[in-house]
Design a protein that fits this description.
- The protein has one domain.
- It is an alpha+beta fold.
- The N terminus is likely disordered.
- The protein is built from 15 helices and 4 strands.
- The chain has a 4-stranded mixed beta sheet with strand order 1-2-3-4.
- Helix 14 links the parallel strand 2 and strand 3.
- The relative contact order is 0.12.
């Protein structure tokens, strides 16, 4: 995953063995080294809420339990704090890429708020979108809403006064519920979270079932994605480039990513290119362009 240079070198994407090893730590050990890093770029509100999140052991505890449920009990892809950091950085990257190209965030258009407030929404949504996995995978979006609402108000206390605080909380909750498979994002920020969550797919992030011998199109395609790059597009503001080592990775793009992009509201702004960086397969599928 290629992100802003100031954070790119600090993000490590663990293979499945690392995700399992982290899930086996004691709760106190697990939360001790969790630290979300984002480029705040002078957004003081974002910096303050990130400091609070990094000091919040309850929030980190949810991330730890979510990962135990995911990688130990269900043997699905990583839902640890690393997933949270990656999704938060992707969401922030997408939002900044869009605003750089003149796309107006919903917080600005609908409430007359600032771009920095839209950044708060996408980051807070990323931090809390799957805390409900600490309860159960089934219906985890609803459990996330239940847990996140009071936590969001706690994190925002003193940063926003009412009614602006309620606006931010409501927009974050909308993003959380809209990231589900049949979600219907009503804002640009909610659509960004939905797509960012789907883009945490690079370098073994979803290889646990495959490495345990559960060979299916889901597990094989997840293991085939090597890198995700977000940059300026040729025909649209954002280009998402997905580099694969095997053509089976097209299932991740055409099947799973397409479903998250469709109805996200980002369709007019995003172009997706997938290609295989393996000589043996370049002649088979040299490049694949996703039509949204």
């Amino acid at each position: 995953m290629t992100l802003d240079p100031e954070i790119e070198a600090r993000i490590e994407e663990p293979v499945s063995a690392d995700a399992i090893r982290e899930a086996r730590l004691s709760p106190s050990e697990a939360v001790e080294h969790m630290r979300i890093r984002l480029p705040d770029r002078g957004n003081r509100k974002l910096r303050r809420v990130l400091e609070r999140a990094n000091a919040d052991k309850e929030l980190k505890g949810w991330w730890h339990v979510a990962n135990v449920n995911a990688v130990v009990r269900l043997a699905i892809n990583d839902h640890s704090w690393v997933h949270i950091q990656i999704v938060a950085n992707i969401a922030l990257k997408l939002l900044r890429q869009l605003t750089k190209n003149g796309v107006e965030p919903s917080l600005v258009r609908d409430y007359g708020m600032e771009r920095e407030d839209a950044e708060m929404v996408v980051v807070l949504a990323a931090l809390t979108h799957c805390v409900g996995m600490s309860v159960h995978r089934k219906g985890h979006e609803d459990w996330s809403l239940f847990l996140a609402e009071p936590k969001l108000r706690e994190l925002l206390d003193g940063i926003y006064d009412e009614p602006d605080r309620t606006v931010i909380v409501s927009e974050v909750l909308q993003a959380i519920t809209s990231h589900r498979a049949d979600g219907e994002p009503l804002s640009l920020e909610a659509g960004i979270l939905r797509v960012a969550d789907a883009l945490d797919m690079a370098k073994g992030r979803s290889r646990i079932p495959f490495e345990r011998g559960q060979v299916s199109m889901h597990s094989l395609s997840a293991a085939a994605v090597e890198e995700v790059v977000i940059a300026d597009g040729e025909t649209k503001p954002v280009r998402i480039e997905i580099v694969m080592n095997n053509s089976s990775g097209l299932f991740q793009v055409d099947g799973l990513l397409r479903a998250k992009l469709r109805g996200s509201g980002l369709e007019p702004y995003v172009e997706v290119i997938a290609h295989i960086d393996t000589d043996a397969e370049k002649s088979l599928v040299p490049e694949y362009r996703l039509e949204i």
